[in-house]
Amino acid sequence: MLKNKNVRLFLGILGVLVLGYILWNVRTIIYYFFAAAVIAFVARPLMRLLGRVKIKGWVLPNWLKSALVLVTFVVIIFSLFSMVIPTIAEQAHIISKIDTKNIVDRIQPQIESISSWMQQANIDQDELQNILQKEVSSIFSMGDVGKYVSGFLSGITDSLIAAFSILFICFFLLKDGRIVDNVVASITPDKYLDKIRTIFNETKDLLTRYFVGVVIQITIVMVVITVGLTILGVKNALLIGVIAGIFNIIPYIGPLLGALIGISLAATGQLEAHPDLSMTSFVLSAMIPFAVAQALDNFALQPIIFSKSVKAHPLEIFLVILAAGSLAGVVGMIVAVPAYSFLRIVAKEFFNGYKVVQGLTKDL
What we know:
This protein has helices spanning 2-25, 27-51, 62-96, 100-106, 108-113, 115-120, 125-139, 142-154, 156-175, 179-186, 193-231, 237-247, 253-273, 279-309, 314-350, 355-360, and strands at 54-55, 58-59. By secondary structure, the protein is mainly alpha-helical. The protein has a domain at 1-91 and 141-177. The chain has a two-stranded antiparallel ribbon with strand order 1-2.
């Protein structure tokens, strides 16, 4: 008897190791699947809307609804790229014309204004200026830009394969909405079948609300910053708005990085057009759209997304994101909320007898 248990234990461990090895080697496909699932979650409301369309009593079939949704998605992405790519080329041209020594000279008064503090901290001002000039030169080096562009072009084939794979998977997730449910149900013991179905249904509804909310959040942040910078006369305001919107996906640190990059790009564009521009006053004015966008995001958008869509307290979400960031860095911070939401639903179904689970899932 003991020998049989040991054999089963050994085979179980071996099976887990083999499964882990296989999953690790096909992780790219798993990434594609999760990307397709996110698009499918966002597209669910549009699928429902198309489901209400009737032409003389004829209802659109699932394959046609799925195709229309994906075509709409591709058109939006291509339209955005067609607007952004020329501005990227223009911004690269502007960066190539920047006189880095002139930038350092322009901000020298600000450096000198804190010289007393640097002296107290035993910081060598000449060394700081040399480091600053070296860093500015590296930031605005066209050699680096060329390296990034070359890397982008060399990976364009992989990008096309990824795009096709994601769209192909997404088409079938939309067309056969219960395909994953059926696969999981087929390998689930009958006594857990009802719980698994409940988990899948609640997860799809919750994540659909969450990802749709995130798309709305990114769009509003992008529009606010783009409009604000356009009013200030900043070149390539759309590109900066798109960058800020994308970085806003990363909780807490993303908006800061987006603002830093955005203001830097805005400043380089204005320096090229107005060499005598006061950098301090411009940077302060350029910060206004980013501050407005973040105030709107922090006090209106995030509470709605986190409280209404995933039904969790903002402090709870903050701690979860910090923990995920410590475990898996930026990727962990991005996937923290949907992963935590899924785990709460699973805990509610299987471990609802525990007080701590009841407390964490009372609003679900």
